[in-house]
Write a structure and sequence with these properties.
The chain has seven helices and no strands. It is mainly alpha-helical and about 160 residues long. Helix 3 packs across helix 6 and helix 5 packs antiparallel against helix 6.
Length: about 160
């Protein structure tokens, strides 16, 4: 029961940060993807199943709030949760460089996945990797060690 409550609190906090505080904390429409970092971190700490479940719920919530193709983010976060969960106990989670590299690569996969799905379904080829997307990738990579530190402390007990 404690584990479920803790995951629910993490879900609520990261949804608030990503969806509601982003309008106040961004500069030039550049804001880190905290949900992506959370999904990857849970995958590293707790494994594939937990990361897939959390990734699907975060993605579904984001899809409900967005006007993009429905279930694209749910699919992408679930895949990223699975892949990051497969790295569970294979690398040192405390290594900051490794955290940043994996989140950087996951963010590139996420952005390319969104782009490809939009190209295939909507046939919208104008939204390419712009300066905004590249800047979002780097800001997400910069906040990664902080989010990993906090989530490692929070998830240590369960």
């Amino acid at each position: 029961m404690r584990k479920l409550i803790l995951y629910f609190l993490i879900y609520i906090i990261f949804c608030l940060i990503q969806f509601f505080f982003s309008q106040y904390l961004n500069s030039f429409r550049i804001f880190p993807n905290f949900i992506l970092v959370c999904v990857v971190c849970i995958g590293f700490i707790k494994g594939s199943f937990n990361a897939q479940l959390v990734g699907f719920l975060f993605g579904l919530t984001w899809d409900i709030f967005s006007t993009d193709v429905f279930a694209t983010r749910a699919l992408l976060f679930t895949i990223l949760g699975y892949l990051s969960g497969k790295l569970n106990r294979k690398f040192d989670i405390i290594n900051t460089f490794f955290q940043c590299v994996i989140v950087f690569l996951a963010n590139i996969v996420y952005d390319l996945g969104l782009y490809l799905i939009n190209c295939i379904i909507i046939q919208d080829f104008k939204d390419t990797l712009t300066f905004k997307n590249i800047s979002n990738i780097f800001t997400t990579t910069i906040v990664t060690p902080f989010v990993f530190y906090v989530l490692r402390r929070v998830l240590k007990g369960i």
